[in-house]
Amino acid sequence: MVRLFPGGEECNNLRLLKMTSNSSQTLSSCASMEPCVPEELFQALSHAEHTFRRMETYLRTRQLCDVVLLAGDRRIPAHRLVLSSVSDYFAAMFTSDVREAKQEEVKMEGVDPDALWVLVQYAYTGKVLKVTAISTDPQKLISDH
What we know:
Elements: E1 2-3, E2 10-11, E3 14-18, E4 27-28, E5 35-36, E6 40-44, H1 47-60, E7 67-71, E8 74-78, H2 80-86, H3 88-95, E9 105-107, H4 113-125, H5 138-142
Parallel strand pairs: 7-9
Antiparallel strand pairs: 1-2, 3-6, 4-5, 7-8
Helix pairs in contact: 2-3
């Protein structure tokens, strides 16, 4: 049993990857952000799953949310990083030099509120619930995901 962080979750699903100096795999160093090739790499097999589950918890408890999407009369809190990581549409909106990149509330014109909520849930869970009526093209929001 390994503790990754003090007070953090116990993780039994770590694997050790042996890497040689001619390996094409890299690991970014937090200090310099330069690629490096370690002799050994410990990798949590379900890291992404646990991370997105934690982010979904933050969404549901409205913690660390940094944007509110407005569609119709609905206010949908979210995290720009999560939306941008799964949607080219949101990535362009939040990383470009446009007004929405800095706004705390972003009005989503012509977007069905229920469809937007489904898309936000998809960003956090990778699951899509059936939507019967959508007044905009959902592919516009989820891009190639």
